[in-house]
Amino acid sequence: MTQFENLVIEKLGSIDKRLDRIEERLDKNESDIASLKNGQLEMHRKMKEMDYKLTKTYELALEAWGQGVENRKLLTEF
Question: What letter does residue 75 receive in the DSSP assignment?
């Protein structure tokens, strides 16, 4: 091989190594993004669950308050 061919092979080898490192970083980023998406879905599910519990608690509190008002009204009538 000529000196030029050796130089081209050396340069292509270094480019190949750099591309391999870039590909590894892209794979890691894709993995991180997938993990974030899973975490985001879990957070969304938990938020819906929390919203449901808060709504039910609020409804229960309103019902208890209304019952208290009714009881007070009945007691004052007697």
Answer: H
CA atoms within 13 A on the CB side of 20: 6
For residues 17 and 45, what is the distance between their CA atoms, to the nearest angstrom?
A: 42
At residue 73, the pLDDT reads 81
pLDDT averaged per 10 residues, the chain (length 78): 90 95 98 97 98 97 91 80
Of 52, 70, 72, the C-alpha closest to 62 is 70
Q: Rounded to an integer, what distance in angstroms lies between the CA atom of residue 30 and that of residue 24?
A: 10
- Output b/e per residue, 7-46; b: 16+ Cβ within 10 A: eeeeeeeeeeeeeeeeeeeeeeeeeeeeeeeeeeeeeeee
Does the pTM surpass 0.85? The reply is no
